Amino acid sequence: MIELDETDRALLRALAEDATQGAGAxxxxxxxxxPATWRRIRRLQDSGAIAGRRLDLDAAKLGFGVTVFLxxxxxxxxxxxxxxxxxAVSAIPEVQTVEHVLGxxxxxxxxxxxxxxxxxxxLRRRIMTLPGVGNVDANVLLSEERRPGxx
Amino acid sequence: xxxxxxxxxxxxxIQNIEMFMLDDLDRRILRHLQADPAQSIPDLADRLTLTASxxxxxxxxxxxxxxxxxxxxxxxxxxxxxxxxVSLRITLDKTQPRAFDEFINxxxxxxxxxxxxxxxxxxxxxxxxxxxxxAHYLDVYRDRILTLPHVADIEALMHVARIxxxxxxxL
Lengths: 151, 171
What we know:
CATH superfamily of the largest domain in chain A: Lrp/AsnC effector binding domain/regulation of amino acid metabolism (RAM) domain
CATH architecture of the largest domain in chain B: 2-Layer Sandwich
CATH class of the largest domain in chain A: Alpha Beta
Number of helices of chain B: 5
Largest interface: A-B, 71 and 71 residues
CATH class of the largest domain in chain B: Alpha Beta
CATH architecture of the largest domain in chain A: 2-Layer Sandwich
Largest sheet of chain A: 4 strands, antiparallel
Strand order of the largest sheet of chain A: 3-4-2-5
Strand order of the largest sheet of chain B: 3-4-2-5
Shape of chain A: elongated
Number of domains of chain B: 2
Helix content of chain B: 25-40%
Mean pLDDT of chain B: 89
Oligomer: heterodimer
CATH topology of the largest domain in chain B: Alpha-Beta Plaits
Structural class of chain B: alpha+beta
CATH superfamily of the largest domain in chain B: Lrp/AsnC effector binding domain/regulation of amino acid metabolism (RAM) domain
Number of domains of chain A: 2
Number of helices of chain A: 5
Low-confidence stretches of chain A: none
Order of helices and strands of chain B: HHHEEHEEHE
Radius of gyration of chain A: 20 Å
Largest sheet of chain B: 4 strands, antiparallel
């Protein structure tokens, strides 16, 4: 586990907002030299604190107007392997995230679609036909806000 | 199966959002960038057999249209010592007219909350909450979450593993 000081936290916050900022610009903003900033960013990457980058696209403008979260309960636990389900569900392009959870459901899926009929197609043809799928519960996303977290 | 909930779909009005028409080249650029956002313009131009200046113009066009909003660093909270992640599915007391606004405003004040999502369906709001360990989670849950306004019901899902995380759009 990596220990962070105040400057590391400020750098993480800034990069989570905009990952394309260079060490020079960030250094000027936080009163560090460019090499010192670069070393800190490098350390955050090497330690795994920064796992990578994500492209921030406006899904609605690209025609993906609907996001649905599905809670999936497996019907026949033990008989089908979790790996089979995970491999099959991860291969569906409209499924953006797959999380294995404990509680009312076994898996939580984030599904993107162009509209409700498109979502229904994905649900019926791709999700409901997955090996071992039992109960499925759907919630349509209305709004989403990502917070900076405890930095 | 809870298909009864899909009857709610008739109430979803899809907002009138101006859609951006991608051509094949835009789509190829975005696909490559989604797969590896950190790659340099010259590398990407090589891969797409474009000149760097043509690629730059295309990317600027996507940026100006608001399609490409930027790039964000993905923070691995586990690497920062936050071993616990819980999804809290919350039903609000909708007899209170300002329940959503007041709940969300209060939730924004909790540092351990990473995501606030509102839904149409059985669940009203979902909070993604992280904590260093179970003892820390219980503190956050008892002192901060349970004191949020207008909560009617809370259901918790504990994260075990992330199987797919890329959040790519199927362009």
